[in-house]
Protein backbone atom coordinates (compact mmCIF):
# COMPACT_ATOMS: atom_id res chain seq x y z
CA UNK A 1 0.00 0.00 0.00
CA UNK A 2 1.50 3.28 -1.08
CA UNK A 3 1.67 5.97 1.59
CA UNK A 4 3.50 9.14 2.65
CA UNK A 5 5.69 8.87 5.74
CA UNK A 6 5.68 12.61 6.45
CA UNK A 7 1.91 12.75 6.23
CA UNK A 8 1.57 9.82 8.61
CA UNK A 9 3.59 11.84 11.12
CA UNK A 10 1.25 14.80 10.72
CA UNK A 11 -1.73 12.54 11.35
CA UNK A 12 -0.12 11.05 14.43
CA UNK A 13 -0.05 14.55 15.88
CA UNK A 14 -3.56 15.36 14.74
CA UNK A 15 -5.21 12.33 16.30
CA UNK A 16 -5.39 13.80 19.76
CA UNK A 17 -7.79 15.82 21.80
CA UNK A 18 -7.27 18.36 24.52
CA UNK A 19 -7.26 22.04 25.30
CA UNK A 20 -5.03 24.82 24.05
CA UNK A 21 -4.51 28.26 25.55
CA UNK A 22 -5.93 30.90 23.26
CA UNK A 23 -5.11 34.00 25.28
CA UNK A 24 -3.80 34.93 28.74
CA UNK A 25 -5.51 38.17 29.72
CA UNK A 26 -4.41 41.05 31.92
CA UNK A 27 -4.87 40.98 35.68
CA UNK A 28 -7.80 42.71 37.33
CA UNK A 29 -8.90 43.54 40.89
CA UNK A 30 -6.32 44.73 43.42
CA UNK A 31 -4.03 42.42 45.37
CA UNK A 32 -3.41 43.16 49.05
CA UNK A 33 -0.07 43.78 50.79
CA UNK A 34 0.97 40.58 52.54
CA UNK A 35 2.83 40.09 55.82
CA UNK A 36 6.21 40.48 54.12
CA UNK A 37 5.22 43.96 52.99
CA UNK A 38 5.02 42.87 49.35
CA UNK A 39 2.25 42.33 46.85
CA UNK A 40 1.91 38.78 45.49
CA UNK A 41 1.39 38.86 41.75
CA UNK A 42 -0.31 36.08 39.80
CA UNK A 43 1.12 34.90 36.48
CA UNK A 44 0.47 32.13 33.98
CA UNK A 45 2.24 30.58 31.03
CA UNK A 46 1.06 27.93 28.60
CA UNK A 47 1.35 26.56 25.11
CA UNK A 48 -0.92 27.35 22.18
CA UNK A 49 -0.24 23.86 20.81
CA UNK A 50 -3.39 21.73 21.00
CA UNK A 51 -1.48 18.66 22.16
CA UNK A 52 0.00 20.47 25.18
CA UNK A 53 -2.74 20.48 27.80
CA UNK A 54 -0.91 22.05 30.75
CA UNK A 55 -1.15 25.55 32.18
CA UNK A 56 1.54 26.79 34.57
CA UNK A 57 -0.11 29.06 37.15
CA UNK A 58 2.18 30.94 39.53
CA UNK A 59 2.44 33.62 42.18
CA UNK A 60 5.49 35.61 43.34
CA UNK A 61 6.59 37.45 46.52
CA UNK A 62 5.10 34.90 48.91
CA UNK A 63 6.30 34.69 52.53
CA UNK A 64 6.59 31.21 54.01
CA UNK A 65 2.95 30.16 53.75
CA UNK A 66 0.28 27.68 52.84
CA UNK A 67 -1.03 28.58 49.42
CA UNK A 68 -3.45 27.53 46.74
CA UNK A 69 -5.76 29.00 44.15
CA UNK A 70 -9.37 29.85 43.44
CA UNK A 71 -11.01 29.11 40.13
CA UNK A 72 -14.29 29.94 38.46
CA UNK A 73 -15.59 29.82 34.91
CA UNK A 74 -16.75 32.85 32.95
CA UNK A 75 -17.34 34.93 36.09
CA UNK A 76 -15.51 37.91 37.54
CA UNK A 77 -17.09 38.99 40.81
CA UNK A 78 -15.63 41.66 43.04
CA UNK A 79 -16.23 40.59 46.65
CA UNK A 80 -14.39 43.03 48.90
CA UNK A 81 -12.75 41.81 52.13
CA UNK A 82 -14.50 38.49 52.68
CA UNK A 83 -14.49 37.22 56.26
CA UNK A 84 -11.01 36.44 57.58
CA UNK A 85 -9.30 38.03 54.56
CA UNK A 86 -7.01 40.98 54.11
CA UNK A 87 -7.73 41.58 50.42
CA UNK A 88 -10.28 41.15 47.68
CA UNK A 89 -11.77 37.89 46.46
CA UNK A 90 -11.93 38.88 42.82
CA UNK A 91 -13.94 35.98 41.46
CA UNK A 92 -17.26 36.26 43.22
CA UNK A 93 -19.78 33.49 43.71
CA UNK A 94 -19.44 29.90 42.57
CA UNK A 95 -15.73 29.78 43.27
CA UNK A 96 -13.84 26.54 43.78
CA UNK A 97 -10.95 26.66 46.26
CA UNK A 98 -7.97 24.35 45.74
CA UNK A 99 -4.97 23.77 47.98
CA UNK A 100 -1.51 23.88 46.49
CA UNK A 101 1.39 23.25 48.89
CA UNK A 102 3.40 24.85 51.67
CA UNK A 103 6.19 27.32 50.92
CA UNK A 104 8.58 26.66 53.80
CA UNK A 105 11.67 28.59 52.80
CA UNK A 106 12.87 31.29 55.18
CA UNK A 107 12.55 34.06 52.61
CA UNK A 108 9.88 35.26 50.24
CA UNK A 109 9.69 33.46 46.96
CA UNK A 110 7.64 32.42 43.95
CA UNK A 111 5.59 29.27 43.50
CA UNK A 112 4.01 27.64 40.50
CA UNK A 113 1.51 24.88 39.89
CA UNK A 114 1.15 22.87 36.68
CA UNK A 115 -2.53 22.29 35.99
CA UNK A 116 -3.82 19.60 33.64
CA UNK A 117 -6.45 21.50 31.69
CA UNK A 118 -8.30 18.32 30.78
CA UNK A 119 -8.89 17.68 34.49
CA UNK A 120 -9.53 21.16 35.89
CA UNK A 121 -12.72 20.82 37.94
CA UNK A 122 -15.47 23.36 38.21
CA UNK A 123 -16.97 24.27 41.56
CA UNK A 124 -19.77 21.82 40.76
CA UNK A 125 -17.23 19.04 40.27
CA UNK A 126 -17.45 18.64 36.50
CA UNK A 127 -14.75 19.48 33.98
CA UNK A 128 -15.23 23.10 32.98
CA UNK A 129 -12.64 23.72 30.31
CA UNK A 130 -14.14 23.36 26.86
CA UNK A 131 -14.03 24.94 23.42
CA UNK A 132 -14.14 28.71 23.74
CA UNK A 133 -14.24 28.62 27.56
CA UNK A 134 -12.93 31.41 29.76
CA UNK A 135 -11.55 30.56 33.20
CA UNK A 136 -10.58 32.98 35.95
CA UNK A 137 -7.91 32.28 38.57
CA UNK A 138 -6.73 33.93 41.80
CA UNK A 139 -4.06 32.87 44.29
CA UNK A 140 -4.59 32.79 48.05
CA UNK A 141 -2.01 32.22 50.79
CA UNK A 142 -1.92 32.17 54.56
CA UNK A 143 1.24 32.64 56.66
CA UNK A 144 2.59 29.25 57.64
CA UNK A 145 2.53 28.33 61.33
CA UNK A 146 0.46 31.35 62.34
CA UNK A 147 -2.75 30.57 64.17
CA UNK A 148 -5.66 32.58 62.88
CA UNK A 149 -3.62 34.16 60.08
CA UNK A 150 -5.66 36.08 57.57
CA UNK A 151 -5.88 35.07 53.92
CA UNK A 152 -3.95 37.15 51.43
CA UNK A 153 -4.86 37.41 47.77
CA UNK A 154 -3.21 38.07 44.44
CA UNK A 155 -5.04 39.78 41.59
CA UNK A 156 -7.46 37.89 39.38
CA UNK A 157 -6.36 36.56 35.99
CA UNK A 158 -8.50 35.55 33.02
CA UNK A 159 -7.36 32.78 30.65
CA UNK A 160 -9.22 31.87 27.47
CA UNK A 161 -9.06 28.38 26.00
CA UNK A 162 -9.81 26.59 22.77
CA UNK A 163 -10.49 22.86 22.69
CA UNK A 164 -8.83 20.55 20.24
CA UNK A 165 -11.37 18.47 18.36
CA UNK A 166 -11.79 14.79 18.81
CA UNK A 167 -10.24 14.19 15.42
CA UNK A 168 -11.50 11.00 13.78
CA UNK A 169 -9.09 8.12 13.40
CA UNK A 170 -7.97 8.20 9.78
CA UNK A 171 -6.97 5.27 7.58
CA UNK A 172 -4.55 5.71 4.63
CA UNK A 173 -6.10 4.95 1.25
CA UNK A 174 -3.67 4.34 -1.63
CA UNK A 175 -4.03 5.89 -5.05
CA UNK A 176 -5.19 3.41 -7.68
CA UNK A 177 -7.83 2.38 -10.22
CA UNK A 178 -11.03 0.34 -9.97
CA UNK A 179 -14.19 -0.54 -11.87
CA UNK A 180 -16.98 1.69 -10.59
CA UNK A 181 -20.61 0.57 -10.75
CA UNK A 182 -22.31 -2.82 -11.04
CA UNK A 183 -23.60 -5.17 -13.75
CA UNK A 184 -25.89 -6.95 -11.29
CA UNK A 185 -29.36 -7.78 -12.50
CA UNK A 186 -32.55 -5.96 -11.48
CA UNK A 187 -34.06 -8.93 -9.62
CA UNK A 188 -33.35 -10.62 -6.30
CA UNK A 189 -31.06 -10.62 -4.43
CA UNK A 190 -29.37 -7.43 -5.70
CA UNK A 191 -32.20 -5.37 -7.22
CA UNK A 192 -29.63 -3.28 -9.09
CA UNK A 193 -30.62 0.16 -10.36
CA UNK A 194 -30.09 1.55 -13.85
CA UNK A 195 -27.99 4.36 -12.36
CA UNK A 196 -25.26 1.89 -11.39
CA UNK A 197 -24.38 1.34 -15.05
CA UNK A 198 -22.40 1.42 -17.18
CA UNK A 199 -19.46 0.05 -15.22
CA UNK A 200 -16.47 2.27 -15.98
CA UNK A 201 -12.84 2.60 -15.00
CA UNK A 202 -11.97 5.26 -12.41
CA UNK A 203 -8.49 6.32 -11.33
CA UNK A 204 -7.77 8.02 -8.01
CA UNK A 205 -4.45 9.77 -8.56
CA UNK A 206 -3.46 10.76 -5.00
CA UNK A 207 -3.28 8.97 -1.68
CA UNK A 208 -5.82 10.26 0.82
CA UNK A 209 -7.10 9.38 4.27
CA UNK A 210 -10.59 8.29 5.26
CA UNK A 211 -12.22 8.09 8.67
CA UNK A 212 -12.03 4.53 9.95
CA UNK A 213 -15.59 4.94 11.18
CA UNK A 214 -18.58 7.14 10.66
CA UNK A 215 -18.41 10.34 12.71
CA UNK A 216 -19.59 9.51 16.21
CA UNK A 217 -21.91 11.54 18.39
CA UNK A 218 -19.01 12.27 20.75
CA UNK A 219 -16.88 13.62 17.89
CA UNK A 220 -19.73 15.71 16.52
CA UNK A 221 -20.81 17.11 19.87
CA UNK A 222 -17.26 17.96 20.95
CA UNK A 223 -17.13 20.61 18.25
CA UNK A 224 -20.69 21.37 17.16
CA UNK A 225 -21.96 21.49 20.73
CA UNK A 226 -24.94 19.22 20.12
CA UNK A 227 -25.97 15.83 18.83
CA UNK A 228 -29.23 15.68 16.88
CA UNK A 229 -29.24 11.88 16.87
CA UNK A 230 -32.37 9.82 17.47
CA UNK A 231 -30.40 6.81 18.73
CA UNK A 232 -28.27 8.19 21.55
CA UNK A 233 -24.79 6.87 22.36
CA UNK A 234 -21.40 8.61 22.46
CA UNK A 235 -19.81 5.95 20.21
CA UNK A 236 -22.88 5.57 17.99
CA UNK A 237 -22.78 7.31 14.60
CA UNK A 238 -24.21 10.80 14.57
CA UNK A 239 -27.38 10.83 12.45
CA UNK A 240 -30.15 13.24 11.55
CA UNK A 241 -27.45 15.48 10.09
CA UNK A 242 -27.94 17.14 6.72
CA UNK A 243 -25.39 17.44 3.93
CA UNK A 244 -25.07 21.10 4.95
CA UNK A 245 -24.44 20.09 8.59
CA UNK A 246 -21.79 17.57 7.55
CA UNK A 247 -19.99 20.10 5.36
CA UNK A 248 -20.03 22.67 8.17
CA UNK A 249 -18.41 20.13 10.49
CA UNK A 250 -15.72 19.41 7.89
CA UNK A 251 -15.04 23.12 7.32
CA UNK A 252 -14.69 23.84 11.03
CA UNK A 253 -12.46 20.81 11.51
CA UNK A 254 -10.27 21.98 8.63
CA UNK A 255 -10.02 25.51 10.03
CA UNK A 256 -9.13 24.34 13.52
CA UNK A 257 -6.57 21.76 12.46
CA UNK A 258 -5.02 24.08 9.85
CA UNK A 259 -4.53 26.78 12.50
CA UNK A 260 -2.66 24.21 14.58
CA UNK A 261 -0.41 23.34 11.61
CA UNK A 262 -1.75 19.80 11.35
CA UNK A 263 -2.93 19.75 7.72
CA UNK A 264 -0.49 19.82 4.79
CA UNK A 265 -0.98 22.34 2.02
CA UNK A 266 -3.59 21.51 -0.57
CA UNK A 267 -5.53 19.14 1.71
CA UNK A 268 -8.74 19.56 3.66
CA UNK A 269 -11.23 17.61 5.72
CA UNK A 270 -14.33 17.10 3.60
CA UNK A 271 -16.92 14.59 2.55
CA UNK A 272 -15.63 11.90 0.18
CA UNK A 273 -16.48 12.07 -3.47
CA UNK A 274 -18.71 9.28 -4.66
CA UNK A 275 -15.75 7.68 -6.43
CA UNK A 276 -13.53 7.92 -3.34
CA UNK A 277 -16.30 6.35 -1.27
CA UNK A 278 -16.87 3.33 -3.53
CA UNK A 279 -13.16 2.82 -4.10
CA UNK A 280 -12.57 2.78 -0.33
CA UNK A 281 -15.58 0.59 0.36
CA UNK A 282 -14.49 -2.03 -2.15
CA UNK A 283 -10.89 -2.06 -0.87
CA UNK A 284 -9.81 -4.05 -3.91
CA UNK A 285 -12.88 -6.32 -4.11
CA UNK A 286 -15.08 -6.74 -7.19
CA UNK A 287 -18.04 -8.56 -5.59
CA UNK A 288 -21.31 -6.83 -4.72
CA UNK A 289 -20.18 -6.43 -1.09
CA UNK A 290 -16.67 -6.09 0.27
CA UNK A 291 -17.36 -9.26 2.28
CA UNK A 292 -18.34 -11.30 -0.79
CA UNK A 293 -21.35 -12.01 -2.99
CA UNK A 294 -23.86 -11.84 -0.14
CA UNK A 295 -24.47 -9.91 3.06
CA UNK A 296 -25.75 -11.69 6.18
CA UNK A 297 -27.09 -10.28 9.44
CA UNK A 298 -23.97 -10.87 11.53
CA UNK A 299 -21.72 -9.00 9.10
CA UNK A 300 -23.21 -5.52 9.39
CA UNK A 301 -26.07 -3.55 10.97
CA UNK A 302 -28.93 -3.55 8.45
CA UNK A 303 -32.58 -4.59 8.27
CA UNK A 304 -33.14 -7.60 5.99
CA UNK A 305 -30.88 -10.06 4.17
CA UNK A 306 -32.02 -11.20 0.73
CA UNK A 307 -29.32 -13.87 0.91
CA UNK A 308 -30.75 -15.65 3.95
CA UNK A 309 -34.30 -14.27 3.60
CA UNK A 310 -34.29 -13.17 7.24
CA UNK A 311 -34.94 -9.98 9.16
CA UNK A 312 -31.96 -8.87 11.19
CA UNK A 313 -32.51 -8.23 14.92
CA UNK A 314 -32.34 -4.88 16.72
CA UNK A 315 -33.58 -2.27 14.29
CA UNK A 316 -31.41 0.62 15.40
CA UNK A 317 -27.87 1.91 14.98
CA UNK A 318 -24.95 0.31 16.79
CA UNK A 319 -21.62 1.60 18.12
CA UNK A 320 -19.20 2.23 15.29
CA UNK A 321 -16.69 -0.56 14.76
CA UNK A 322 -19.04 -3.25 16.07
CA UNK A 323 -18.45 -5.39 12.98
CA UNK A 324 -15.27 -6.43 11.21
CA UNK A 325 -13.57 -3.83 8.98
CA UNK A 326 -12.91 -4.22 5.28
CA UNK A 327 -9.44 -5.04 3.93
CA UNK A 328 -8.33 -1.40 4.30
CA UNK A 329 -9.44 -1.03 7.91
CA UNK A 330 -12.73 0.82 7.32
CA UNK A 331 -15.73 -0.06 9.48
CA UNK A 332 -19.44 0.02 8.66
CA UNK A 333 -19.08 0.74 4.96
CA UNK A 334 -22.14 -1.51 4.69
CA UNK A 335 -25.02 -0.59 6.98
CA UNK A 336 -25.40 1.33 10.26
CA UNK A 337 -26.13 4.71 8.61
CA UNK A 338 -26.17 5.96 5.03
CA UNK A 339 -23.26 8.32 4.40
CA UNK A 340 -23.29 11.65 2.57
CA UNK A 341 -20.92 12.09 -0.39
CA UNK A 342 -19.76 15.40 -1.83
CA UNK A 343 -21.14 14.87 -5.35
CA UNK A 344 -24.48 15.56 -6.96
CA UNK A 345 -26.19 12.51 -8.36
CA UNK A 346 -25.62 12.18 -12.11
CA UNK A 347 -25.69 9.46 -14.76
CA UNK A 348 -22.58 7.42 -15.47
CA UNK A 349 -20.91 7.16 -18.86
CA UNK A 350 -18.61 4.39 -20.02
CA UNK A 351 -15.65 6.76 -20.48
CA UNK A 352 -12.70 6.28 -18.08
CA UNK A 353 -12.62 8.92 -15.35
CA UNK A 354 -9.76 10.49 -13.40
CA UNK A 355 -10.58 11.85 -9.93
CA UNK A 356 -14.22 12.43 -10.88
CA UNK A 357 -16.36 14.93 -9.01
CA UNK A 358 -19.85 15.93 -10.09
CA UNK A 359 -21.44 19.22 -9.05
CA UNK A 360 -24.17 21.49 -10.34
CA UNK A 361 -25.75 18.95 -12.68
CA UNK A 362 -29.25 19.14 -11.22
CA UNK A 363 -31.39 21.85 -9.73
CA UNK A 364 -32.32 21.54 -6.99
CA UNK A 365 -29.19 19.71 -5.92
CA UNK A 366 -29.41 16.10 -4.69
CA UNK A 367 -26.14 14.88 -3.15
CA UNK A 368 -25.33 11.18 -3.27
CA UNK A 369 -25.73 8.95 -0.20
CA UNK A 370 -24.02 5.57 0.04
CA UNK A 371 -23.61 2.42 2.11
CA UNK A 372 -26.98 1.35 3.46
CA UNK A 373 -28.32 1.70 7.00
CA UNK A 374 -29.84 -0.03 10.01
CA UNK A 375 -33.31 -0.12 8.40
CA UNK A 376 -32.21 -0.98 4.85
CA UNK A 377 -32.45 -4.26 2.98
CA UNK A 378 -29.16 -5.81 1.92
CA UNK A 379 -29.50 -4.62 -1.69
CA UNK A 380 -29.25 -0.98 -0.51
CA UNK A 381 -25.97 -1.83 1.27
CA UNK A 382 -24.05 -2.94 -1.84
CA UNK A 383 -20.76 -1.24 -2.73
CA UNK A 384 -22.27 0.20 -5.92
CA UNK A 385 -25.75 1.21 -4.72
CA UNK A 386 -26.48 4.91 -5.31
CA UNK A 387 -29.17 7.00 -3.65
CA UNK A 388 -29.57 10.73 -3.14
CA UNK A 389 -31.30 13.21 -0.87
CA UNK A 390 -31.92 16.93 -0.61
CA UNK A 391 -28.95 18.68 1.06
CA UNK A 392 -31.19 19.82 3.92
CA UNK A 393 -32.52 16.30 4.48
CA UNK A 394 -32.22 14.69 7.92
CA UNK A 395 -33.09 11.16 9.01
CA UNK A 396 -32.15 8.70 11.74
CA UNK A 397 -30.55 6.55 9.03
CA UNK A 398 -28.33 9.31 7.61
CA UNK A 399 -24.83 10.24 8.84
CA UNK A 400 -21.37 10.76 7.36
CA UNK A 401 -17.65 10.08 7.55
CA UNK A 402 -14.83 12.38 6.53
CA UNK A 403 -11.76 12.20 4.35
CA UNK A 404 -8.53 14.18 4.56
CA UNK A 405 -7.91 14.65 0.88
CA UNK A 406 -7.01 17.17 -1.84
CA UNK A 407 -9.08 20.35 -1.75
CA UNK A 408 -12.19 20.40 -3.96
CA UNK A 409 -13.99 23.67 -4.62
CA UNK A 410 -17.75 23.10 -4.45
CA UNK A 411 -19.74 25.69 -6.42
How would you describe this protein?
Helix content is 11%, strand content 30%. By secondary structure, it is mainly beta. β9 (134-143) and β10 (151-164) form a beta hairpin. The longest helix is centred in the middle third of the chain and has 17 residues, at 243-259. It is elongated, with a radius of gyration of 28 Å. The protein starts with a helix and ends in a 5-residue tail after the last strand. Mean pLDDT is 81; it is low at 1-19, 48-53, 78-84 and 122-131.
Per DSSP E runs of 2 or more residues, the count of β-strands stands at 23
CATH H-level superfamily of the largest domain:
paralog of FGE (formylglycine-generating enzyme)
Instruction: Quickly name the level 1 CATH class of the largest domain.
Output: Alpha Beta
Question: Which residues form runs of ≥5 with pLDDT under 50?
Answer: 1-19, 48-53, 78-84, 122-131
Tell me the number of structural domains.
2
What is the terminal separation in angstroms? 33 Å
**Helix content class:** 10-25%
What's the mean pLDDT score? 81
Q: Please state the CA-atom Rg, rounded to the nearest Å.
A: 28 Å
Instruction: Describe the main β-sheet briefly.
Output: 5 strands, antiparallel
CATH architecture type of the largest domain: Alpha-Beta Complex
Name the beta content range: 25-35%
* Count of runs of 4 or more consecutive helical residues: 4
Anisotropy-based shape: elongated
Structural class: mainly beta
Amino acid sequence: MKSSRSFHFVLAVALTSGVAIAQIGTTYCAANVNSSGSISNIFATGSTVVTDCDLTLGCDNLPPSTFGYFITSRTQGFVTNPGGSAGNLCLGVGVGRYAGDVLSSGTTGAVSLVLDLNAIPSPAGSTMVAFGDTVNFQFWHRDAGTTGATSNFSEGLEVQFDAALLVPTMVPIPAGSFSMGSNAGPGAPYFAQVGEQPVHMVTITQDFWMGATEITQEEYQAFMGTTPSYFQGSDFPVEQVSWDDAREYCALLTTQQSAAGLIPGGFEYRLPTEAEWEYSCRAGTTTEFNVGAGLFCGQARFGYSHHSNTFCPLMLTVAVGSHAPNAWGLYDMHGNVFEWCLDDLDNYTDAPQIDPFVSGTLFPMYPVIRGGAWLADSDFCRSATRLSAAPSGRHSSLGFRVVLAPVIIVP
